[in-house]
Design brief:
single chain; 291 residues; alpha/beta; 5-stranded parallel beta sheet; 8 helices; 7% strand; globular; disordered N terminus
C-alpha cells in the first residue's frame, strides 16, 4: 500500500470511528475524506498562459484553473488551496510577491496533508536570463555556433550551485516547519528544448544550434539542484525528465508540453500548455502512489 493510500485509509477510518462513537450510521459507499492539499510555487505550477484564469487569484499571478494542482485535485478529490503564482521565487514563500498576495507559506498548517510545487527556476533569473541571452545571441548569429555558451560559460551553473540550490533547500525546510504532517512533493521542470538542435525549430525557439545543448545542460543542472534539495529535506522529487522527453517546445502541436517563444498557443511563452499540465499531474500522482 502506498503512503498516500495509507493516509487516506487512516483518515477515513478515524472519521468512521468517530461516527460510531456518536451513534451515527455512515453511508454504505462513503467517499474517502478529502485531504487538505496546498499547491505552491511558480508559473509552471500556476499554469500561467493557459485559459481560463482562476478568478480567486490576483491577475498578476496569471493562475489557471487548468494548472496541474487543479488536475490533481479533480482526480483525487483532495481539498485544494492553490496559492501558486507566476514569477514566484523562493523568497515569495515567506514574503508577499505582489500587493494583496499573501506569502505562500501562510496557506500551510498542521492539517495540511499534501504540498506540491515547482520553484527555483525564477531565482536569480535562471530561466529568463538564459533564454533571453541565448535567444538574443542566436538571432545575431542566425542560428549558427554557440555564441551564448561562449559569452556566459559556466556562470549559470555557478549561480545554481551557489544561490538557487541553498534557496530551494531553505524554502523546503520552511514548508516542513509550517506543515509538519504533510507529504511534500517538488517537481522538476519538463524539457524546454530537445537534446539536439532541430533546425526547423529556430523560427519558434531562436537559439543557435550549438547553444541548444548548452541550454539543455543548464536545465539539467537546475533540476539536479532541485532533486538534491528535496533529498536533503525529506521531500519527494518528481522527475519529469524521462516522461517529457520529446515533448519540448520544438515538438509539434498536440505533442509538445511546452509552448515556444513564437507561434505558440499560450499567451505566456515557454511555459507548459494544458496538455503539459495534465501530464505533470499524471506523473506526480504516479510518483506519490509509488512511494
Amino acid at each position: 500500500m502506498s503512503m498516500r493510500a495509507l493516509i487516506r485509509g487512516l483518515t477515513a477510518a478515524t472519521a468512521a470511528a468517530g461516527a460510531v462513537a456518536l451513534g451515527l450510521t455512515a453511508p454504505t459507499a462513503q467517499a474517502a475524506t478529502p485531504l487538505p492539499y496546498v499547491a505552491m510555487g511558480d508559473s509552471y505550477s500556476a499554469g500561467s498562459g493557459i485559459l481560463p484564469l482562476d478568478p480567486t487569484a490576483s491577475l498578476l499571478c496569471a493562475r489557471s484553473t487548468a494548472d496541474y494542482p487543479h488536475v490533481i485535485a479533480s482526480r483525487t478529490g483532495d481539498r485544494l488551496t492553490d496559492v501558486t503564482c507566476g514569477g514566484a521565487e523562493t523568497k515569495d514563500f515567506a514574503g508577499s510577491q505582489y500587493p494583496g498576495v499573501a506569502p505562500q507559506l501562510d496557506a500551510l498548517g498542521d492539517s495540511t496533508r499534501l504540498v506540491t510545487m515547482t520553484i527555483g527556476g525564477n531565482d536569480n533569473g535562471t530561466f529568463i536570463d538564459a533564454l533571453l541571452a541565448c535567444g538574443s545571441a542566436g538571432i545575431v548569429t542566425v542560428g549558427n555556433g554557440a555564441p551564448c555558451k561562449a559569452l556566459y560559460g559556466d556562470s549559470f551553473d555557478r549561480t545554481i550551485d551557489n544561490s538557487t540550490y541553498p534557496a530551494v533547500r531553505s524554502a523546503l525546510r520552511a514548508v516542513r516547519a509550517k506543515a509538519p504532517n504533510a507529504r511534500v512533493a517538488i517537481l522538476g521542470y519538463p524539457w524546454i528544448v530537445p537534446a539536439k538542435a532541430d533546425p526547423s525549430c529556430f523560427v519558434k525557439m531562436p537559439i543557435a544550434s550549438g547553444d541548444v545543448p548548452y541550454v539543455r545542460d543548464i536545465q539539467t543542472h537546475l533540476n539536479a539542484a532541485v532533486r538534491r534539495a528535496a533529498r536533503d529535506t525529506g521531500a519527494t522529487f518528481v522527475d519529469l525528465s524521462g516522461v517529457s522527453e520529446g515533448h519540448d517546445a520544438c515538438a509539434p502541436v498536440g505533442t509538445r508540453w511546452i509552448e515556444p517563444v513564437l507561434f505558440g498557443s499560450n499567451y505566456v511563452p515557454v511555459h507548459p500548455n494544458a496538455l503539459g499540465e495534465r501530464e505533470m499531474a499524471t506523473q506526480t500522482l504516479k510518483v506519490l502512489d509509488a512511494s
